[in-house]
Amino acid sequence: DRFRVFCKDNFSDFVQLARSRDMLVSFNGIGFDNKVLTACGLADAVAIQPEGNYDILREIWVADGLEPEFRYPSHIGYSLDATCAVNFGLKKTGHGALAPVDWQRGNIGNVIDYCLNDVKLTKRLFDRIKGAGGLRSPKDGSLFLDMRKP
Q1: Given 41, 60, 64, 109, which residue has the most CB atoms within 10 angstroms?
Q2: pLDDT of 104-123, one tens digit each?
Q3: Distance CA 92, CA 66 (A)
Q4: What value, to the nearest 5°, has the Cα angle with vertex 97 and ends 91 and 102?
Q5: More reliable by pLDDT, 53 or 119
C-alpha cells in the first residue's frame, strides 16, 4: 500500500524492489511498461514477462476469450479507464497521450500525479481480482470469472 516515484536518481532502488518481488502486477505492462523500461535503459534489469507476472489487461482479454496479445479490432475497449469505470464508477485523472506533452512542457508534477493515480487504480483492480475472483467487463458489464491466478 505504499506508492513510490522512481526517477533517474533512484532507478537502482526500483530495480532492487522489482527484483525482490515474486510477481510484478501491471495493466498492459507487457505492451506499454516494457517500452518505458527500455527507453530508460532498464529493460535488461527489469522486464515484465508473461511468466511470473500478472498483467491485468492480458488476463481480462484471456478471460473474455481473446488472445493474450493485442489484435485489432477485437481487443479495443478494454482500457484502464473503461475497466475502472465499469468496476468502480471511477475514471482516470487524465489521458496518457497528454503525459509526454506535459513532460516536455515541464509539468512534471502533473505527469507524476497522473501516473500515481493509474498505479492506485491498477492496485484497486488487482485487489478486486484477489477478493472477488474477477472484474466486470468494460465491454458489456458481465463478470469475468477465473481471474484469480495470483
Answers
A1: 60
A2: 999 999 999 999 999 999 99
A3: 25
A4: 100
A5: 119
Give dist(CA 79, CA 105) in Å, integer: 26
Beta carbons within 10 angstroms of residue 134's beta carbon: 19
pLDDT above 80 (res 148)? no
Angle at 92 between CA 86 and CA 95, to 5 degrees: 125
Q: What is the DSSP letter of 55?
A: E
25: β partners: 54
Would strands 54-55 and 25-26 be described as parallel, antiparallel, or unpaired?
Answer: parallel
- What is the pTM assigned to this prediction? 0.90
Amino acid in position 96: G
Residue type, 118: D
Which helix (H) or strand (E) is 54 found in, with range?
strand 54-55
What are the beta bridge partners of residue 55? 26
Q: Per-residue pLDDT averaged across 81-104, rounded?
A: 95
With beta carbons less than 8 A apart as the criterion, state whether 43 and 123 touch: no
pLDDT tens across 18-50, in order? Answer: 989 888 999 999 889 888 888 888 887 786 666
Q: What is the spatial distance between Cα 141 and Cα 143, in angstroms, rounded to a whole number?
A: 7
